[in-house]
Design brief:
mainly alpha; single chain
């Protein structure tokens, strides 16, 4: 068992064999987590609640978030740093934080949207989806995911379609979305068309000519000429 601090600092990888006093020493554990973030699990309770130590740990290994104190698992900066390493560690974040819509919007910048959807409560998903609509890449991802719980909402679907029109990628995103063949999305499209006095075909087009015609009809319904 290593009991000498100088020896511990010189060999941070040897942390499993440190005495309890070294595992309670901030300098030693900071060196250990910078070498391997997972070392946080051997840190004392006080150091698991130390912001500097925990931030260093999650920056090295995102999954170290699970060993942090409850308060630090609700810390925006720490959770974002962990998620940047591995989006799946979002499940270790405090539940209240995962329901914070403003925080969820930040996640879209550092974490794949599919990961956010997997671990977020439904109430926060619409804000994340709206942020994704600001770019062609985000629109395509929304179309690819084609979640009925999101794009099955006619109001959100209309925002999605208008964003795709503005980004000049309506046909591409619509083609991707149609491939999912999810009934809720078809129903949302039908509702939107009905709002604008247009009728959706009985079946969504799968051939290019039909898709082009449908995009024209949809565009005219969404943005009628004055």
């Amino acid at each position: 068992m290593i009991i000498d601090k100088d020896a511990a600092l010189a060999n941070p990888q040897s942390y499993p064999g440190w005495c309890s006093a070294l595992k309670s020493d901030k300098d030693c554990m900071l060196a250990a987590v910078q070498y391997n973030g997972s070392a946080l699990w051997q840190a004392s309770d006080d150091l698991r609640a130390d912001r500097e130590v925990v931030l260093a740990a999650v920056q090295q290994h995102g999954a170290a978030l699970q060993y942090a104190s409850k308060d630090l698992r609700a810390d925006h900066e720490i959770v974002l740093a962990a998620v940047q390493q591995d989006g799946r560690v979002l499940r270790f974040a405090d539940e209240a934080l995962r329901q914070d819509e403003r925080f969820v919007a930040k996640l879209a910048d550092v974490c794949p949207l599919g990961i956010v959807w997997r671990y977020k409560p439904q109430v926060t998903l619409e804000g994340t989806a709206r942020k994704a609509m600001r770019s062609k890449g985000g629109l395509r991802l929304l179309a690819k995911q084609a979640r009925v719980s999101l794009l099955g909402n006619p109001c959100l679907m209309k925002e999605f379609l208008l964003s795709a029109l503005e980004e000049d990628c309506l046909k591409d995103t619509l083609q991707t979305m149609i491939a999912s063949q999810k009934k809720g999305i078809l129903d949302a499209l039908r509702t939107i068309m009905a709002w604008h006095g247009a009728k959706l075909p009985d079946a969504l087009p799968t051939d290019m000519d039909g898709l082009n015609a449908f995009c024209t009809t949809l565009s005219e319904a969404l943005v009628p000429e004055n």
